[in-house]
């Protein structure tokens, strides 16, 4: 009986260490995306547009801060930059509410909204951890017709941001 304990204890310890190291190196599986009006990745997840991996992970479009690409520069989600995919547009007025669905709530530096190269709105997150949903009202009165808004959520305590493009018909 004593021999069995001597063998089982080291095996159990080794298994625990192996399991904990797997957890430590696994990437987080969830973060956030614009769900309303539906972003490109939300449309992929809903099956409105045929897409790759983003269909199953709309919340995972994460890349280094500073990009103005729909995929943030993350090659894994390159299809989000393809304007030829026929992204459905949502008709909105000149003031629009953007709602983020957050599945992992990171402390926030800023939320930014761009039309082309123009920063049209910025909201200070103050380093706080947001709730499960965040909504911002963005004034788009300087724009009309078909526009693509890039929404960027800048995380406060890392060099990363989350990206979402929303195709709109303004006015």
From TrEMBL:
Ranges for domain Chitin-binding type-4: 31-168
Cited Gene3D superfamilies: chitin-binding protein cbp21 (2.70.50.50)
Keywords: Signal
SUPFAM superfamilies reported for this sequence: E set domains
Range of residues in the leader sequence: 1-30
A Pfam match: LPMO_10
Protein name: Chitin-binding protein
Originating species: Spirilliplanes yamanashiensis
